[in-house]
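Supplementary material to the annual report.
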Amino acid sequence: MKKESVVAIVFGILLGLMVAFFVIFQSKQQQLSKTKLINNQTKGPTSKVQIAVATPFLEVSFPSDRLVLDTDSIIIKGKANENSLIVIQSPIKELVFKNESTDFEKDFPLALGENVIELTNYPEDKNISSVHKQLRVYYLDTKDTTE
Amino acid sequence: MKNKIILFLIIIQFSLLTNLALAQNEESTPSAETGSDKVSTKTIENFKEKIASKVAELTKKEQKALAGFVSKIEDSQLTIKSDEQQNYQIKIDNILTKIYQIAGNGKKEIKLDQLAKDDYLIVNGPINDNTISANYIFVDEKYIVNVGRVTEIDKDNYSVKLLTADKETINLDIETSTKQSILNIKTLQLERTGFSKIKEGDLIHFIIKKDSSAKNGTRFSAVKILIIPQEYFIK
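Predicted assembly:
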């Protein structure tokens, strides 16, 4: 083998090693950056909340639509814009209140059978349009006592 | 020239070998962990079992029902059409299925032959695709709860024309039996009111009874109305 070939091979090996170290270094950095993303998720919601304050929103965490219950009242739990006017209406009850904090919890009666419950959020800023949500909750008393 | 090619090939080979080694390392890590951490695997299994039982419990608790107007009755099978215009087959077991008529806040057991076309039914039972094996059937009344802005007032006929958020026009007849309330924009309390207080531009939260005969109509008798005066939105 010529001297030049040997030198070329040695250089090749050295360069290969350099590339290998570079690849290892890069992949480790990538892994670290991925881990950072997961850790940074705690910071995420605060920015989301900041956006949510500006836009009208109405979320109902309980009850879910078409839920079957065997009680004649429920506690409606949800979230809406602070200081907005919330209207909750069903064929047997209407409730109007100012949402002083984002979360709300209201006791609401149910009629036997289907209860169509309409929730409306009128934000404090009157230029922002209202948000509506409709739920159907079924109070089905299946006890065998016929009335 | 040959030397350059050899050098290039060597570089490529090394880079590939390094990547392969890295890939093998990443794949081998989990198996090494499972081998060394049997106790934590057992804990995970226990945790999984607990989650599964909790999910089963919640599924049992979160029972759902379907409702719709009867479109067809055949022997022990009914077909109902839901609000979403979806047809559902209702299977009735003569022994197991209980059928009740809701009247006020009470119920009365009735027979299958007392059900008629256009009855509004609430059906509870296992759902498989579009078929429900009914455990319980309740005959109820269908109510619509919605909101609309007043666009016209007919003082002679005590009726108002509303435009809903879905751009639907509703003619609402205010009857003597209609429960009417209005929002006091200062106190945010509800107060009893009358037809004369309704103005164009007001928002009305209304409740109407929907029977099968009026399904495609736009004129309804109001059961209840709640007026949000337009002044609330400009104060």
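The radius of gyration of chain B is 32 Å.
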